[in-house]
Amino acid sequence: MRIRVTHQRITIALQLILLGEALFAVWGQRWFTAFLTAMIIAITFFPLLFERRFRIHIPPELQLAAIGFVFASLFLGEIRDYYTRFWWWDMALHTMSGFLLGILGFLLVHIMNETENIHVHMKPGFVAFFAFMFALGVGALWEIFEFTMDSLFGMNMQKPMLGDPSGLTDTMWDLIVDATGALVISVLGWRYLKNPDKRSFLERWIDSFIERNPRFFKR
Predict the structure, then answer these.
(1) Buried-most residue among 55, 75, 105, 107 (CB within 10 A)?
(2) Per-residue b or e along 33-67, where b marks 16 or more CB atoms closer than 10 Å to that residue's CB
């Protein structure tokens, strides 16, 4: 319970920072910044709305990780221009997205594995492979989205990197670190299925998800 309260307080603190930025943007008549910040604030409520709408209880660690990723990518990255100020910022966030998408992919197939009315059972190796490919696939779709936005609307989502103005180096490094983050999660997920007694942050998060959503699992 104490952990959940701590995560809620951190989430509220991030939302208050965003609210302050939105108010200052309105005061300074920076309308696009105000709009983007308001959208970020709305996105931070998605885990709570998802939980209430679909009755899927998301562990507080996962909620905070998702909200922290949105805060770091959209607010610090775009509004505070961290993508330009720190060359490694985009790579760090893509690594984190590989982690989060890998966890999502793992949980999706693990639920299918454990749900009695779905007559399918996949071995740990395939579950880990699915989690890896799911994260990498979503990462590739995001790169296609960036290319489309840059081509059609003249945006700068594929940024110059390491002396390459074309954005190709940025795209390839994004995919590489996406794969790295997804691979780490896939290996940890495989280890969890093979040896449930092993403990890491992922095992704790998975156990927390199972405990909070017993209707999806046999145990």
Answers:
(1) 105
(2) bbebbbebbeebeebeeeeeeeebebbbbbbbbbb
Do the beta carbons of residue 126 and residue 194 sit within 8 Å?
no
Which string of DSSP letters, residue by residue, matches 92-123?
A: HHHHHHHHHHHHHHHHHHHHHHH-TTS-----
| Tokens matching residue 59 | 């562990």
Q: Which two tokens stand for residue 204?
A: 């704790």
Run means of pLDDT, 10 residues per run, the chain, 219 residues: 72 88 87 83 83 79 86 86 86 91 86 67 86 92 88 75 76 92 91 75 77 71
pLDDT of the residue at 79: 84
pTM above 0.70, yes or no: yes
Which is nearest to 12 in space by CA: 67, 53, 54, 51?
A: 67
The helix (run of H) or strand (run of E) holding residue 15 is helix 2-27
Structure tokens at 127: 């579950």
Confidence (pLDDT) at 217: 67
User: What DSSP state is assigned to residue 177?
Assistant: H
